[in-house]
Amino acid sequence: MRYPNCARAFTAAVSLTIVLSVSAGPSLAQAPDGAQAQAALQALVAQAKKEPDAINGSMTRVLLSTPDLIKQATKMFNQEFGLNKTFNIVEGTDNTFTAQMRASLDMDARPKLSFYTTNASDMQMFISGGYIPQVKDWQLLLAAINPRVQSGEVKPTDISRASFGGYAFAHSNRLKGVGYNTSLASPKDLPQTYAEIADPKYKGQYAIEPWTSHWDALAYNYYPDRLDKFLEIMNAIGKNSYWVAQSHQLIPRMAQGEFKFMTLNAEVIADYISKNPGAPLGYYFMNDMTLLETTMMFVPKQAPSSATGTLWVMFLTRPDVQALRWDDAPNVMYGEKPSDKEMKAKLDGKNVWDWQMNPSTTDYWKWLNSKDAETFRSQRLKAIKQQR
Amino acid sequence: MAEQAIELNGGLPEFLRALRQRTGEVLAKPYLVPLVIGGIPLILVVLLSLFVFYTTFVPRLPTKPEWTLANWALLADPHLWTVVMPNTLIVGFGAVAVTLFFAGPMAWLLVRTTIPFKNTLLTCVALVMVIPPFVKSMGWVLLLNERIGILNRLIVSIFPIDSFPVSTNNVWGIAWVMGLTLMPTTFFLIAGPMRQMDPAMEEAASICGASKLKTFLYVGMPLVWPAVVAAGIFTFMTAISLFEVPAIIVGLGGSTPVLATEMFFAVYGGDSGTTIRYGAAGVYAMLMMVPCLIGLYFYFKVIGKAHRYRVVTGKGYRPRDIDIGWWKWPGLIFIGLFLLFAAVLPLLWLVWISVASFRLPSIDALQHLNFGFYSWNYILTAFGGWPTIRNTIVLVVAVCIVAIFLSVMISWVVVRTKLRIRRVMDAASILPHAIPGLAFAFALFILALTTEVWTGLSIVGTMALLVVANVLSHLSYTTRVTNAALIQVHNELEEASRTCGATPLKSIFFILIPLIRPALVFVTIWVALRTFRELTMALFLTGTDNKVMAVQVWLAWNEGGLAQAAAGAVVMTIGCAILLFLGFVVTKGGVLKRATGN
Amino acid sequence: MLKVENLYKQYATDNGVVEALKGVSFEVQSGEIYTLLGPSGCGKSTTLRSVAGLETASSGLIAIGDRAVFNGAKAINVAPEKRGVGMVFQSYAIWPHMSVAQNVAFPLIHGNRKVPRSEVKGRVMKALSMVQLEAMADRPAPMLSGGQQQRVALARALVYEPNMLLLDEPLSNLDAKLRVEMRIEIQQIIKRLGLTGLYVTHDQEEAMAISDRIAVMRDGEILQEARPLELYANPVNVFVAGFIGKSSFLDGTVTEVSPDSVRIKTGPISLSCRRQAVPAAVSVGDRLDVVIRPEDVLVGEQDTAGVGGNLFEARVEMATFTGGRSTCELTAGGVRIAAELHGLRQLAPGDMVKVGVHASDVRAFARNRDSASQLAALETV
Questions:
Q1: Distance from the A151 Cα atom to the nearest Cα atom in chain B, whole angstroms
Q2: What is the pLDDT averaged over residues A286-307?
Q3: 3-state DSSP call for residue B262?
Q4: Do chains A and C meet with 3 or more Cβ pairs nearer than 8 Å?
Q5: What are phi and psi of C143, to 5 degrees?
Q6: Is C198 helix (H, G, I), strand (E, B) or coil?
Q7: pLDDT at B388 over 80
Q8: Hey, are the CB atoms on C81 and B490 less than 8 Å from each other?
Q9: Residue C17: CA atoms inside 13 Å, Cβ hemisphere, count?
């Protein structure tokens, strides 16, 4: 998992042995050299001191969404590194920023923001496009900043894994799950694998999101030879679906009983349930796979304050900073609230995995992001949107 | 003008002489300042339109000299022609039908008859504009839906039927909600001319023995008809490019795609790892622009005729209100129904959702009401804190001032001069309306980036960019109003000022602007409300220094904070109501009178 | 004081190039009231507006005093606010958002002939007293009647003491009685202040009453320029003759030419007229347009006693009593002649009457394409 401590929590509460065993990658066997790490950190801090005091960046609402929380985090940050920075956090939907950032980088314009937050699935194009420089001594720096890395409890490669190594750093997690209306159905009556959704008996009873990421894991099972079969299943799912829309619009409608279940990000519905106690809503995870989508933070090329941005991105991986969340925000990894515990319980025995899980998945993921997969991608999107 | 000189004088030397004279004249001309000031935004508008067109021929972004026709290949997709375009046209024409169905009779009732509570009802119509489209859309989704609609359930419980299969979850639903959303603009566009219709002409016809209905159809209608057509085209153009309503009512994709949602996918992707299809987005934008441009052609034809019709409104006539007697009751019920559909039901839903969240109205639900979201802290969070509120105020004020100023300058050239370029300016000023908000924001964003790369002037993510976007996109409407206002002010009033020794600019500021002030106040309020709730462009252009309230409320709703967003929207609506009311009080009712063309 | 020379103006419309002015030239002496008279579209307003600077001519020259304010050849075009003329508009152009006093004070405050603030009030009141509106100074301008508004417009044009006053159909929006009063008042003020006036109107009676000299215009040209009396007595062509007064036009053929007189036959009527009153190169058999003013047509034994040979019988077709006068339409063998009689002389349709015209009251013009178009133009006036 991304976070050492969360991995711990998971090992204890959930049996995620597969995930842990494959997550190692090229890692340091021992805790990094403390003195070396401190030297690297001091160099970065010295550079940050030369940068302007005001720094801009984008984040999602899940973390640090209120001005108060940002102030708290800023205070801790300044105390930790002896700096005097103010952070201006821009919130927005992921796709707005992805589009903006993509355009800026395509135009070779200097980025406005010193750090960005986006989905792991969007990361590849930024890394391969050369839009993100690799942070020098990133493993040492993480060790110097995050106490759990320093103690060797967690490896730097758990935070910045595999092909993201040194480019992007995990920030929070999204687990792809299934939401349902508790007064219309129980999980027993609902599909237990993604492929089962195609069963005609569910026709008209479910909604899906237009984003393709839900189906990436399903497609992987058919890669590389049987993608036609996947498209067939996907097409049936799209055709039988009652509705295609964004989950935040669909959840209230599901709560009213318009349809039985839908695919969504588990933290979105968990958040909704905690904000609307008593709503007849529940969620579960599929048996075949539960895709873990990680929200990554990175510092782009030519960032206005790259050193400060790098410090901030790494600082945010610390457990004490991760704990700064508003009341309802779910925190599967660290949270101790009933809703957090509930999600961990639901994950018990499930097959959680992500794109950096093993070379084979990473290979599929790279292919998916390449030009060769263009036709496949557009066919898949059409299947989801029911557009023949 | 130079061509004309050639025609008249023939030969090169004369031409040069004429040209020199012409240049000298232009420099000394009173129209120089308005022409230059009004010309700059219009050049930008034309540039943006051309840019959108240009992106359709390049593979990615216009950074490299590469050409492609691949983007246009999407026109070969039969799905586009069999599903997307028909849907889009249904939305466009349907919305026009809905707006005219309500706006036509209501404009007549409220400006030409003795119907009671006029001012209150006019205020309500204006308020309909304030309720964010996503609120109306979501409200109707929960009101009329064969599975969960409150109205459907009510009907099923009253009548002995198993289901009431009427739903807004389709393309007709988009047209319906879109029509309700756009009705106020249409209303105010029609009400002005309807107010100016000379009752003497109607009387003349009725003396000839025509019945009231015939009088209206054959004498009244031809006079209002240009305004009705113009308003219809205006509505059509807005309806097919507004993204928020279809995104909620039929979702993204599914069986009911429209051009606006297709374009959303092109810009935002939706597919992990895909590149942004700038060119495809441009092609979709072009597809939207084509019907708009055809509409524009007819708009100008109709407007050209409207000038001829204008002659009939002679001096010194006072519009008289027609006594409709007993018919005021059906009239009031009709207006009441509209307000119920467009404002009361969605607003009630909004208020309900903000205190009862997902629960349907019931005795049980009443016990779970939670007014927690009306705490100041929550509202402030929904709005994104004080800086956001400050930004919003700055944005609204700046957009109003700049848009109105530019509008007056453009209209002055269009109405007051005989320059040939005035027609180009008139057409260019309405062009922003043909460009969908998303394409507009996108083109502006790229243009700003290009500016930054070339000149180092950084405006991406600033308030300035948002101001420019809003000003340009509102010019199409504001210039309609200022054009009409200027036509009503007799040329000689300004000329008198010139012969009294005042310079052209002094004449504009001391004579013209005070004379059209009521129209300016009205259009300012309109621009303020529109800017205040504008979302599509603000969302796309969001950056470090330009967060605004509409975006924050949308984000709150986007992140599942349904009740919080609803509470925010309720407060926003009340805020606008207060603003409108103040405008009403300050001008002693002049705003709404102006709005209806008195 | 004002000199206009060879003024041309063309502009393009959707239907091609229109020539609004075709070489208009005239001079107005200091202290004179000069009127441009003509039907709508004749170019009189365009000429006046070019003098004011509100329109730009294509070529020509305009000088006010000894200053050239427009010279097409040298590309001189002085802005209206710098020409130092006063102007009164047809629509009054009173600014409705200001009071009477504010309207009149505007040129002194915002114009380029500013005066010290302390003087403004005195000057405004002086101008208002000139038009007898001192008592109305604080009224909102739209609260005045049409006549009062026109007085305000006059005061506003006079307050900065221009030497030249331009009046563009100033009285056409007033009712008949007020029109007569105001034109006297305007004339008196201009004369009293020693101003030079350029006056534009389509009303020949108004022009006659107010002007020192009149230029009759048609189709962008000046047809005749003369003192009112001379214009009435000796119009140069059918158009001028028709425009000044309401004449009858008869289709005549010359039957006899002598050194002193010419005899013309029109239908059954044979009229003699003075030799000077017909075109110089006239010979027997030529066709002429005979013009007779209604007020010159004499009816009845008594009135026709001294007219000599110009006598004929006519039938009364129609008689209209209009108060001081009555107009009637007479026919003699298909020839229609209008006559104007004293109001108390009542004729009934069907009456046969004796009709006579003094030879000196008969005028005839050569009949050609020009005159035909002029006659056609008169129909539409």
A1: 36
A2: 86
A3: helix
A4: no
A5: -80, 0
A6: strand
A7: yes
A8: no
A9: 15
Residue B458 burial (10 A CB sphere; 0-12, 13-18, 19+): middle
C and B touch per CB criterion (3+ pairs under 8 A): yes
Distance CA B87, CA B91 (A): 6
Report CB contact under 8 Å: B544, A90.
yes
Q: pLDDT, tens digit, for every residue of B166-210?
A: 888 888 999 999 999 899 888 877 776 676 665 555 555 555 555
Fill in the amino acid letter for C274.
R
Sign of the four-CA dihedral B462, B466, B468, B471: negative
Average pLDDT rounded to a whole number, residues B548-565 = 75
Q: Would you state the structure tokens that stand for residue A343, as one six-digit string?
A: 């999600």
pLDDT above 70 (res B597): no
The pLDDT of A68-78, averaged and rounded, is 87
Interchain CB contacts (distance < 8 Å): A and B = 195
- Cβ distance A107 to B147 less than 8 Å, yes or no, reads no
Least confident of A4-13, A210-219, B123-132: A4-13
What pLDDT was estimated at residue B6? 38
A 10 A CB-CB count for B211 gives 10
**Structure token digits, residue B221:** 């209608």
Of the candidates C10, C54, C75, the beta carbon closest to that of B498 is on C54
Q: What is the pLDDT of residue B71?
A: 81
Contact B511 C95 (CB under 8 A): yes
Using CA atoms, how far apart are residues B128 and B338, in angstroms rounded to an integer? 10
pLDDT reading at A368 higher than 90? no
Rounded to whole angstroms, the Cα distance separating B129 from A131 reads 43
**pTM score:** 0.77
- Rounded to 5 degrees, what angle do the CA atoms C75, C77, C82 make? 155
* Two structure tokens written together for B119: 């001012």
Do the beta carbons of residue A182 and residue A282 sit within 8 Å? Answer: yes
Residues in Cβ contact with A51 at an 8 Å cutoff, skipping those fewer than 6 apart:
A304, A305, A306, A307, A308
- Contacts B–C by Cβ distance under 8 A: 98
- Answer whether A138's CB lies under 8 Å from A27's CB: no
pLDDT given at position A17: 27
Residue B469 CB coordination number (10 Å): 28
Low-confidence ranges of chain C (pLDDT < 50): none
Q: Has residue B335 got a pLDDT over 90?
A: yes
- Residue B247, amino acid: A
Element spanning C304, H or E: none
Instruction: Decide: C237 and C223 in contact? Cβ < 8 Å.
Output: yes
Reported as a pLDDT band with limits 50, 70 and 90, residue B568 is confident
With contact defined as beta carbons under 8 Å apart, do C19 and C57 qualify? no
CB contact under 8 A, A100 and B445: yes
CA distance B275 to chain A (A): 8
DSSP conformation letters of A144-205: HH-HHHHTTSS-HHHHS-GGGTTTEEEEEEEEEEEEEETTT--GGGS-SSTGGGGSGGGTTS
Q: Is C156 within 8 Å of B500 when comparing Cβ atoms? A: yes
What are residue A207's phi and psi, to 5 degrees?
Answer: -120, 155
DSSP H/E element including C20: strand C16-28
The pLDDT-based confidence of B315 (bands split at 50, 70, 90) is very low
What percent of chain A is modeled with pLDDT above 70? 84
Q: Is the pLDDT of residue B313 over 50?
A: no
Give the integer Cα–Cα distance in Å for C213 and C227: 4
Query: What residues contact A311, with CB distance under 8 A and at least 6 apart?
Result: A44, A45, A48, A77, A81, A83, A145
Of C75, C86, C173, the CB nearest to B499: C86
**Residue B550 to residues B384, B393, C228, C352: CA-CA distances in angstroms?**
10, 12, 74, 91
